[in-house]
Amino acid sequence: MSAYDELMAHERETQALAQVAGRLSWDQETVMPRGAAEQRSEESGAMEAVLHARRTDPRVGEWLAAAEAPDEVGAAQLRQIRRAHDRARKVPAELATALARLTSRSQGVWAEARANDDFAAFAPTLEEVVRLKREEAAALAENVTLYDALLDDFEPGATAAMLEALFEDMRPGLVQLRKRALEGVAAEGVSGEFPAEVQLSLARELAGRFGYDRTRGRLDLAVHPFSSGSGDDVRITTRTAADDPFNCIYSTIHETGHACYEQGIDPAYRLTPLGQGVSMGVHESQSRIYENQLGRSPAFCRWLYGEMRARFGDIGVSDEEAFYRAVNRVHRGYIRTEADEVQYNLHIMLRFDLEKALVAGDLAVRDLEAAWNERFLKDFGYPVDKASNGVLQDVHWSVGLFGYFPTYSLGNVYAGCLNKALRAAVPDVDAHLERGDPGPAVEWLHENVQRHGGRYEPREVITLACGGEEPSAGPLMGYLADKFCALYPG
């Protein structure tokens, strides 16, 4: 075997073990008995120790030095392996294992604190997570800030400075649109009886229509919806609320976008570094375009209105137009995942600034809840009523995902660019959506984004999909202005 072949054989086993580790996390979020938390923490730590040893194996460096890429795909494989190897070597094995153990346990502590609206019960554990993440960042950082070192795990090539400039460019337009909408005529929401089993039946139907292959996946319930896995085992979760069927519907469509990305990657890349999404920003571009530009479009809402009436009977809105307004209504609220398209990115900006301060050491965990509440009041104009609607609503910090949040907004920006290119390439997309058929749109996304997996760099794959046009906030902001100015005429 050549050095390249030996390296790829080693990498396939590493990738397979990483998938097993991911399955442990899926199990913990869905069906693991509550009393197993401490044992699962040890199991997660043991798996991370094995993975870290494989990623830092001296032979990997030797193979990389000797390997010759057989083609462009091989060169991309080597680039991704080298990046992962270089990063893994900088983090001590003891730290990687300790983080895996802690974040597995921390997730359960967060869930209980959230259920009890008790940030103080979670704060000591979060302090330890932040401490270890700062240690990890310090080990990784070379001529970059601690935050940029962590951000690179989720969006290679991005920096906090780049994101700050992007968000400052977006903020005035978002604030102006929100003001216009909230001062306009309020759209009515849906009302009626929405049994959980009927919501889940519709969720399964929607996932299938958007291309999710349930022979290679499954749909389960979780407190915080997520997607897990790649290749032939990609699992999604959703949640139901008796008075809000949109929570289930759009969480499912969102996670289906993530899952279709992973299922749609070229099978030749399976169990290699190219066999998964290239970044969380590109990943979010898929989930957000599925959920918003397709799933909340006027055309798709016309079809969905009929489905809702058929399954639930009277849903409290009189016609398709009223239903479309209900789906897209701008309203006061606390929860990021339930926010409308206008306000969603403002939620992300809040989290981005707070986690930067935590990582930099400018904000102590003990002061986080007060800082959150103060910032929320400033940005949204009303106070947080309880911790589960504020600082405890998201799982991310409990599992050490610092640097993850801004990729949600970056995904929205990418989705805006892709939507513009998609509609130019598939001009009859709305005619299909009106029949409940996202197929042509999904196929375009598969062909232009999903099948490539990790072959290209994040901005590169979006640029290629958009015919050479570099990603920017312009298409997203234009889409939002057109949509919400029409919904809320001045």
Automatic annotation (TrEMBL):
Binding-site residues for Zn(2+), renumbered to this chain: H254, H258, E284
Catalysed reactions, as listed in the record: Release of a C-terminal amino acid with broad specificity, except for -Pro
Pfam families: Peptidase_M32
Record protein name field: Metal-dependent carboxypeptidase
Native source organism of the sequence: Roseovarius indicus
Enzyme Commission code(s) on record: 3.4.17.19
UniProt keyword terms in alphabetical order: Carboxypeptidase, Hydrolase, Metal-binding, Metalloprotease, Protease, Zinc
Keyword Zinc belongs to the record: yes
Cofactor(s) needed: Zn(2+)
Catalytic site positions: E255
CC cofactor note: Binds 1 zinc ion per subunit.
Function: Broad specificity carboxypetidase that releases amino acids sequentially from the C-terminus, including neutral, aromatic, polar and basic residues.
Family the UniProt entry places it in: Belongs to the peptidase M32 family.
GO molecular function, one term: metal ion binding
InterPro entries per record: Peptidase_M32_Taq (IPR001333)
Keyword Metal-binding: yes
Protein's GO biological process: proteolysis
